[in-house]
Amino acid sequence: MNVLEVYDLAKAYGDFEAVKGISFAVRQGEIFGLLGPNGAGKTTTINMLMGLARPTRGKILYFGKEYTHNIKKAQHLMGIVPDESNLYPELTGFENLCFCGALYGLRKRERSARAELLLEQFGLKDAKDKKFGEYSRGMKRRLTIAAGIIHDPPILFLDEPTTGIDVASARQIRSILKDMNKKRNNHIPYHPLHRGGRKAM
User: Fold this and answer.
1) Phi first, then psi: what are they for 10, rounded to 5°?
2) Full residue range of the structural domain in which residue 93 is found
3) Among 6, 96, 128, 130, which residue's CB has the most CB atoms within a 10 Å radius?
């Protein structure tokens, strides 16, 4: 089953064509990477898939349904991890996760339980009451990813998930994502789509 299908997707800014008509599909359980040099159109493509940029032409389908001109209706299906953290430095790790859960409409008990689970999975349980601004760079990246999946989305977009962190932290993040993907494919949907890294994490 394809969770995402893209047909002849293009984006132009005046006479400049940032994305020149690409087509691909992502199957259930697949880790899919967009690779290329700076300026190749990777972020522009992801922005179109997330509804942050409007395509000039082409089609975007999630789970077989077209959302090209109304991506907002598909945003509940996505977890989004930007290339730079969008969390609040004055809040603790636990508070940041709960806040993100509230934004996705999770009830207090549910978002607290999800936050505790994710802090455990991402090796941040001992830092749950520490302010995010005091986290190391690798810890910040892990919490940012955890925040992106607080609502348990079936698709996860990661923009440069391991850029700017040490090798050990990068390996840990890849290991966590692979493990989560493996567990989710045992009847729990979870499909990372990531950019800027290696295709096989």
Assistant:
1) -140, 150
2) 2-195
3) 96
